[in-house]
Amino acid sequence: MQSVHSTPLQRTKQNTKLISFLVRKYLRFNKSQPFISITAILAFLGVCIGVMVLIVAMALMNGFDKEFERKLFIMNYPITAISDSFDAIDSNLLEDMESQFQHLKFSPFVQMQAISKRGQRMEGAMVFGVDFERESALNPIFKIAFDETQKFYQQNFGSSYEKEVFDVIIGKTLQRQYGLQLSSKLLLIFTHLTPTAMSLTPTMKHFNVVGVFDSGLIAYDKGYIYTNLESLQTIKQLPNSVYDGIHIYSNNSREDILVLQKHYPQIRFVGWWEQNGNFFAALALEKRALFIVLMLIILVASLNIISSLLMTVMSRRKEIALLLTMGVSTTEIKKTFLYLGNLIGISGILVGGILAAIALSILANFPIISLPADVYGSNKLPLELSMIDLTMILIGSFVIVFLSSYYPAKKATQIDPLQVLRNE
User: Fold this and answer.
1) Which pLDDT belongs to residue 116?
2) In 119-219, beta strands by DSSP E
3) Rg (CA), the chain
């Protein structure tokens, strides 16, 4: 009971001690009514497991998103310059871009659709005619393949690779499917038609395989073929100074694309994110849906907090009534049950976060789960938990726990001491 002569600071300390005492008392295992304690334990475990699963799931989703984004970023290039005009993109434009934007890297290309054929097998392909040296500066996947080509020629022919017109670098999936080796021949049938004496026939040409790239994505490893720039210019009958487009590498592509578009209004610039907008929109929707579904686990677990607190209030009605008649304020009673519910929920959140960190560490360092690399782009689980996701999980969990504790705490203050003591 508080003294009328006590100072506000003393009353605050007394209130804190009282609330701490009641919280510790109500947390003890109640032998007469064990179901109340069991419900509290289940609430703790539910919040703990929900937070752990949510953090691990968000790390997995974000990891897959980033992994696919990195792969698509490499194979689609940050910015691509294209034009509907026949000769709008030429060597003069390339030289002007290189002089005006020296912080960017450029690689001109010519592209054609074709069918690759080996024996009785055929596959559709997008063939890019590029400058191997320039392309290596933009595309690290292509650079690895080109460096391997240089090493192969050095070991087998005693000299560095010298550019030939009809050489190709193909994907690993296509190489395995056709059983090709370096220096093997690959037939490409182009959609470009060549006039003959009787009719128009597709252009066919045997190319020499000089390298193999591995992007980690089966669609690119099967469908992309790189050849020398002069090869496709010859087949398409283009002048040496005319290109279909220019691949552009930028560390800040979303801002640079606006500057480029303003500087060259006659050219259309396409960002890598625009080429795969539907894919990333689907991933973002899936991630949001998963977050909401898993957050429901924490919401369901919070129902156990409500049940446990309400049962505690009902079983302690007489005790609460006595406290109120002895001078304990309704605010102190409310804080007691708020702290009690928050202690159960927040301890579950903290333990869940620790378990999630342990689980992510184990998954990242030990090959517990192995993925098919040709499907997912990596044989290891890609784990990358963003601070935004972690913050949203923690804030959402804290809000749910607080709201779950508030209603029973409010009900505890609505007890009528006179009626309870008269009846009991």
Assistant:
1) 92
2) 121-130, 167-171, 185-195, 200-213
3) 34
The closest of 206, 204, 138, 139 to 171, measured between CA atoms, is 139
pLDDT at residue 130 in the model = 92
Statement: residue 6 has pLDDT above 80: no
pTM score, whole prediction: 0.67
- Main-chain phi, psi angles of 171, to 5 degrees: -80, 160
Cα–Cα distance between 390 and 15 in angstroms, integer?
Answer: 35
- Distances, alpha carbon 337 to alpha carbons 43, 122, 408, in Å: 15, 72, 7
Cα–Cα distance measured from residue 175 to residue 2, given in angstroms and rounded to the nearest whole number: 85
> Rounded distance, CA 52 to CA 67, Å?
22
Distance, in Å, from the CA atom of 250 to the CA atom of 102, rounded to the nearest integer, reads 11
Whole-number Å distance between alpha carbons of 336 and 411: 12
Q: State the Cα angle at 315 between 310 and 318, rounded to 5°.
A: 120
Residue closest to 19 by CA, chosen among 337, 360, 397:
337
Among residues 268, 332, 243, 271, the alpha carbon closest in space to that of 22 is found at: 332
Q: What is the pLDDT of residues 200-254, one digit of tens each?
A: 677 888 999 999 998 877 888 888 999 999 999 888 888 888 999 999 998 888 8
- Of 116, 81, 72, 86, the residue nearest 100 (C-alpha): 81
